[in-house]
Each structure stands twice: as C-alpha cells, then as structure tokens.
Amino acid sequence: MLQMNWKRIGVVAGLSLSLVAAGCGQEKDNATKNENDTSIGEKIEYTITGIEPGAGITEATDNALEEYGNLAGWEHDKSSTAAMLTSLDNAIKDKEPIIVAGWSPHFMFAKWDLKYLEDPKGVYGKVERIQTIARKGLKEDKPKAYKILDRFHWDPADMESVMLDAQNMDFDEAAQKWVDTNQEKVKEWTKGIESVDGTPVELVLTPWDTERSSANVAKVVLESKGFDVTLTAVSPSIMFKAIASGDGDASLAPWMPATHGAFYEDYEGEFEDLGENLKGAKIGLVVPSYMDIESIEDLKSAE
C-alpha cells in the first residue's frame, strides 16, 4: 500500500514538473514571439522610407497608411529617390530592417535581394504598364517622330539593363550602349522612317530612373533620324499638364492604371494615348528578403 502511494506521488510530481517546464517554455516562446512582432516597427521607428512628394507611389503609400488599420501610428518619410536608395543600401550593409516605397523595373532588384510585401487590399494596384502619351496634333505636325514613338515598346529587362549601366555612366551613354546592342529592335521602331533636318521634339518625363532610361533611349533613336530632342523632367502632375496643353510633344512616363491614374483622369481627352510602351511594371512596399515579413498586414500598430 505504501509502495503504491509513493508511485502515485512520483507520477504526480513528474506531471507537475513537466507542466512547469512546458509553461516556462511557452512563456519563453511567447516572449520571443512578442519581441519579434514588435522589433521591426521599433527598429525603424514605425517609418516607411519614401521618395519624392507628388510621385504616384507616394500618394499610394499615403493611401496605404489609411487603408491598413494596422499602420495607425506609422509615418511616411517623403524625401527623394536618391535618399531612399542610400537608406536601403545602408540598411542592407548592416542587415537591418527597412521598408521602402519601391517599384520595378529598377536596378535595385538586380543589385539587392528584395521582395514586395503582399498587398491584400490592393492599394498599390495590380501589375502596371507604362504608357506613351502625345499632345494632340503631333501626328499631323511631326508624323515621323509620332510613328517612332508609337512603335516604341520594350521589356522590363531592357529598361533594367540601361538603369544598371547608368549607375556607372551617364544615362545618355547607357542609352547609346543599349541602342548599339539592340539594333534589331531599334530597326523595328524606325523602319521606313526617312531622316529629317533638326526638327525639334520635346519629351517630358518624371525624375525616375525608369523614365530617364526610356526617354534617353527614345532620344538616341530620334536623333539618329535627325531630330533635335530635348528632355524635360518634371513632377507627374506637370508632365500630364504639359502634354495636355501642348507645351511638350510626348511622354513615355505615365504608369497605369494606379500610379498615375488620377493624373490621367484629370487630363483625359486632352492628349492622345499611344498605348503601352512597357508592361510588367509594379509598385509597392519593398523589404530586403532577409526580413521575416510577407504582407503589409503583418506590420504591427505603433500603439
């Protein structure tokens, strides 16, 4: 009888120790989980690193702060593309967390291992395309330039190659390099086009490397046919206004349907849409791949 009681006591004690150990382990796991849950926001001071005010992705990021309730308390640091890339570079060198407003095509995806955060609410839209728009009357006034611009179409990989080369040389040099090595594609754009003698063409672009790439390539191609090309970089709203008012001839820069959709609607009917010149573009919140986060909804509130 005494032996049986001791066995029962031993069983109970063993179970108690197991439960205590399990409880301690669970508390430790919960503490680790809570620490991981809050570390990203705390380390980056609940800040999303953005680019220039007025850019379409800037507006979309402001909307994301409102649409996602779990971003209450977060801030959107609007600065410049160059400043954003510097912050991203510094964070990656130290393997620190960072969240940036990003887009592709962009050389940063070739330079670093990055990923988009999932956007279940669709604030940043789906995969985008880049359009070509022209002032009304360009087809009649400068039909040869119009035809080249209407034919202009390339792939994200083409644009990224120019952007990557432009990190070590001027954009006009990178554009010339691309044209020299992609003559078959260029010949499709210029087929049957006779040269002109210094006809001026003004291309309006936004100050993104993507648009610097397309505008400079178009410039090289147009100049090979004798056009005198001027590139004018402005904010997206001014870009649309310039083409709608006829102050500029054309632009290869509008991102649709989300990034520049509001500006497009403001001036729709006041310019001619020549269709897409690139498809497969995307915008959204971007993080280094080493960050253990997959969705915007995974971000925690600052409160």
UniProtKB/TrEMBL annotation:
ABC-type glycine betaine transport system substrate-binding domain location is 39-180, 200-301
> Which is an annotated Pfam family here?
OpuAC
Q: Give the highest taxon in the source lineage.
A: Bacteria
Q: Name one GO molecular function term.
A: amine transmembrane transporter activity
- Gene Ontology terms describing biological process: choline transport; glycine betaine transport
Can you name this protein? Glycine/betaine ABC transporter
Give the InterPro entries listed for this entry: ABC_Gly_betaine_transp_sub-bd
Cellular localisation:
Cell membrane
One GO cellular component from the entry? ATP-binding cassette (ABC) transporter complex
Alphabetical keyword list: Cell membrane, Membrane, Transport
